[in-house]
Amino acid sequence: MSNDQFTLPSASRRGFLGSAAALAAGAAFPMSVPALAKAPLSKTQPAYFYRFMLGTAEVTVVSDGPLPLGDPGSSFLGVPKETVYGMLDASFLPKDNVVLEQNIPIVNFGDRLVMFDTGMGFSKAFGPTTGRLLKSLEEAGIKPGDIDDIVCSHAHIDHIGGICTADGKALFPNARIHISQIDFDFWTDESKLGSPLKAFIEHARANLLPVRDRIVFFKDQQEFLPGIQAMAAPGHTLGHHIFKVASAGKSFAFLGDLTHHAVLLTENPRLEFAYDSDPKQAVQSRVRLLTMLAEERMPVMSYHFAWPGFGNLTKAGDGFRYLPAPMQMLPG
């Protein structure tokens, strides 16, 4: 190749030499005002909802806000505290305070809108970051009056707390409430108000009794709403259930409180949880159902996993590994 091929036309040479001279001058005499990308911190976050398709149904996940439990060594039991702290540290999670999310899926089947669990509501028993459900719904463009059905995995304070206001007014005026009768009877039992469960009993009564005429009980394995099947998972509470949600050949399992943590109760499902009514039975339910879900490769939605709580399970040794699904931020 000859050097002539690299010779610039005279006009181009003049422009190139002029530009080079200007650059050299700029280097010798820097600008008096430097260009700085200076801007105030925004200190804002995006709206707390996420949408994806399930067959022909649209799923909107909203949040009731983070729920801090405090020292994980006091809540996750059956092994030395140092083992719990080590599991968290290996997953780059803080060891001094375990924080759970409250992921609430709302499924639009086209002819009805079904919400699963309702968060803490007016109770601040776990701090000020909970009770965000109504704000999250507003951000997602969903009106409380549009909810047709509320499906409750169980009657604990952070799952039925958003059904009514503190003065007994229904927050979802058109919704039927679905729950197991075992849990309803246990957690609204007035005779337990003098027990250590008092706060849980009071909150369940405040949220369930005002809407008693709209409560419908489901049973294990029953498809109590089109596309929604109950599966008993006792132990966390006596009437705790998980649910298979299906549309047009696609499905996921809403786990409720089958496992509270993607590391501690999933990688080691035989750990026990301080808030379980029957920890041994909870372990049996957890191992049995997580095994089934992993074998069937059914996607899962966990109420308490890191936002938005949707992913898959795979068997890993004596436990399971949770694999978060990539978030789909663009439609289509």
Description of the molecule:
This protein has 332 residues and is α+β, with helices and mostly antiparallel strands. Helices cover 24% and strands 23% of the residues. The protein has 8 helices and 17 strands. It has a 7-stranded mixed beta sheet with strand order 1-2-6-7-8-9-10. It has a 6-stranded mixed beta sheet with strand order 11-12-13-15-16-17. It has a two-stranded antiparallel ribbon with strand order 3-5. It is globular, with a radius of gyration of 27 Å.
Which keywords apply here?
6-stranded mixed sheet; 8 helices; 23% strand; disordered N terminus; single chain; 332 residues; alpha+beta
Write the layout of secondary structure elements.
Blueprint lengths: L9 H19 L20 E6 L2 E7 L3 E4 L1 H4 E2 L3 H10 L7 E3 L2 E6 L4 E4 L16 H8 L8 E3 L5 H4 L15 E5 H7 L10 H11 L6 E4 L9 E5 L8 E7 L2 E5 L17 E2 L5 H18 L3 E2 L8 E7 L2 E6 L8
Parallel strand pairs: 7-8, 8-9, 9-10, 13-15
Antiparallel strand pairs: 1-2, 2-6, 3-5, 4-14, 6-7, 11-12, 12-13, 15-16, 16-17
Overall spatial form: globular
Please state roughly what percent of the residues sit in beta strands, choosing from under 5%, 5-15%, 15-25%, 25-35%, 35-45% or over 45%.
15-25%
Mean pLDDT: 91
Tell how many strands the DSSP assignment holds. Answer: 17
Biggest sheet architecture? 7 strands, mixed
Structural class computed from helices and strand pairing: alpha+beta
Q: In oligomeric terms, what are we looking at? A: single chain
- Give, in spatial order, the strands making up the sheet with the most strands: 1-2-6-7-8-9-10
Q: Segments where pLDDT lies below 50 for 5+ residues?
A: 1-9, 19-25
Sequence of secondary-structure elements: HEEEHEHEEEHEHEHHEEEEEHEEE
User: Rg from C-alpha positions?
Assistant: 27 Å
- Euclidean distance between termini CA atoms: 51 Å
Residues in helices, as a percent range: 10-25%
| Total helical elements | 8
